[in-house]
Description:
By secondary structure, this protein is of the alpha+beta class. It has helices at residues 12-22, 24-30, 33-45, 47-67, 97-105; strands at 2-11, 81-85, 91-95, 108-117, 120-129. It has one domain (2-134): CATH 3.90.470.20.
Amino acid sequence: xxxxxxxxxxxxxxxxxxxxxxxxxxxxxxxxxxxxxxxxxxxxxxxxxxxxxxxxxxxxxxxxxxxxxxxxxxxxxxxxxxxxxxxxxxxxxxxxxxxxxxxxxxxxxxxxxxxxxxxxxxxxxxxxxxxxxxx
Length: 135
């Protein structure tokens, strides 16, 4: 059974402007430690790719926050929600701290997809009950 659905579209130019204005502090606010390392490596090799990476993570976290019905309020925080990837390359939600405890206590699981094209990054997230006994 579906718990919630969230979607988000993000203007990549807005993310680029925030990076220009606030520097790495902006990325540090949005990304987990693992994501930050990936962002730094991508940004060094190809700055545009780094901006796109940050935009897709921003968008996916927004979509997830909508799907769980909290928006950006506790226990949901930018850094407690990580967008990882499976060996196949499929994006996956990895949660940390209080958000993970809250999410697991509700018996939820999440599915996320991300995409980017020229000026926009978009994400879609479905959160469902993973334990049929919770219905």
